[in-house]
């Protein structure tokens, strides 16, 4: 009888844990983008960076169980004018030849009580081989025309800022500002 009861408890525990498991999503690269902006005198340098890979698992019942990691492709970063692109990838800023990736790995997700589709996402960002903590504003969207509660296709927007100097990417600091604003829009599809 004890063996049957123990087996039943293990099965029930496994079943309950299975219901609460995070949903795994794959990145839709063609509909995802990473934008950045940094002051350049009275103007702005703006640009984009391709997403090399993403690992996203969302637990809608227990957001703390969710995880997001994103790897960006520094070697294919583009700025709004050619000199800025060359400088961005060069050794005085991101040094793409030595550090081809920028990565972000989440640590905690805190959903806003007043806006369940918005959260604070804290984690670690690695730029030029230097890892520092970062907090990003996160928001979850469904594509237009999707029914309320549908989770097969989603957009995740992440916004925040980093100091270039904190990562040793301080080239041309007499011309270019230190704070870089980040704006990631990731289209994700549920993995069946």
TrEMBL record:
Transmembrane segments: none
SMART domains tied to this protein: YceI (SM00867)
Top-level taxon of origin: Bacteria
Positions of the Lipid/polyisoprenoid-binding YceI-like domain: 24-189
Name under which the protein is recorded: Lipid/polyisoprenoid-binding YceI-like domain-containing protein
């Amino acid at each position: 009888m004890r063996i049957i009861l123990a087996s039943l408890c293990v099965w029930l525990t496994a079943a309950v844990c299975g219901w609460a498991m995070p949903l795994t999503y794959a990145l839709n690269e063609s509909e995802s983008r990473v934008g950045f902006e940094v002051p350049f005198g009275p103007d702005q340098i703006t640009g984009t960076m391709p997403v090399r890979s993403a690992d996203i698992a969302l637990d809608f019942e227990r957001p703390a169980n969710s995880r997001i990691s994103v790897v960006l492709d520094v070697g294919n970063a583009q700025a709004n004018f050619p000199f800025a692109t060359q400088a961005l990838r060069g050794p005085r800023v991101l040094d793409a030849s030595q550090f081809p990736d920028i990565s972000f790995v989440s640590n905690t997700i805190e959903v806003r009580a007043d806006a369940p589709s918005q959260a604070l996402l804290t984690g670690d960002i690695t730029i030029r081989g230097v890892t520092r903590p970062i907090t990003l504003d996160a928001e979850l969207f469904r594509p237009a025309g999707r029914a309320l509660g549908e989770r097969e296709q989603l957009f995740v927007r992440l916004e925040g800022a980093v100091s270039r100097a904190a990562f040793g990417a301080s080239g041309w600091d007499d011309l270019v500002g230190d704070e870089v604003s980040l704006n990631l829009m990731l289209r994700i599809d549920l993995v069946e």
